[in-house]
Amino acid sequence: MLTRTLLLALAVGGLAGCRFGKLPDPNKPELTSKYDGASLQAKVREADNVLNERLAKGEIDTVQKKEILHEYIQKQVEGIELSKVGNEQAWRFADVYRQMEDWQTTHDLYVIAVASAKDEDRRVNDTLRLAEAKARLDNVAEGIELVRSTFDVAPAGKAPILMATLYEFAPSALGKGLDLEVARLVEDAMEQHLQTIVDPATDSGKQFLQARVHHLRQSWELVFRVYRESGDEEVVRGAIERADTMMRKFAIA
């Protein structure tokens, strides 16, 4: 029996026609290897792009998009035995299962990915994603430790830390008994962000520097909210002083 989301996908495909394209063919010759993580990622990325186009045109809403994408990914991973996924492929499969919000499988694959990381970039990114999975599985304390374990990376590798902490880990961790610790982690991640070294001559470096103030403001907003909710005015005042010092030190208006 066709599920509601697949029926919706078929209906949307029929309505959209060639204007929006179709979800990638699961039998596409160059993408048929079940254990080729890069191919699986490419297929899911293509599907996500198609659905984003449909979302932008009002053909589907965000909830429907998520349902269709989840079911599409489920179809792609049918028959895959995770024990046969090579260690060097683990992070790619983890990324796909993360999009499907299968947090236990995501967690288990990122554990392998972190242990098998070929360089510091992979170690940092995969550790941050593993921390998110820990929080999603209600193990916030271990997640906090994992985020902090990335702080030893060289300044050139610190760029992902605040982004993952603020936008991925914190939303997954708040409300689970360690909110003050999460807020302190965000504060410390801001310091990591300010230690980051980028090349201002590159597009990515320019984008990082241009967005820095926005991300710091978003971080302080979260920190202030959590501290206010704690009811401890001394904690709030301390955070305000630290924020003021940071803004003055780095000339952030």
Describe the structure.
The protein is mainly alpha-helical and 253 residues long. It has a domain at 150-253. The protein contains 11 helices and no strands. The protein has helices at 4-16, 37-56, 62-77, 90-99, 103-115, 120-136, 140-148, 159-173, 179-195, 203-230, 233-249. The longest helix is centred in the last third of the chain and has 28 residues, at 203-230.
Principal-axis shape:
globular
- Give the H and E element order: HHHHHHHHHHH
For this structure, the quaternary state is: single chain
Overall pLDDT level:
89
Number of strands: 0
Tell me the major beta sheet.
none
| Helix coverage percent | 55-70%
Task: Evaluate the radius of gyration.
Answer: 21 Å
Count of helical stretches: 11
N→C terminal distance: 58 Å
Q: What structural category arises from helix and sheet content?
A: mainly alpha
Proportion of residues in extended strands: under 5%
Q: pLDDT under 50 segments (min length 5)? A: 10-21
Element layout with pairings:
Blueprint: H1 4-16, H2 37-56, H3 62-77, H4 90-99, H5 103-115, H6 120-136, H7 140-148, H8 159-173, H9 179-195, H10 203-230, H11 233-249
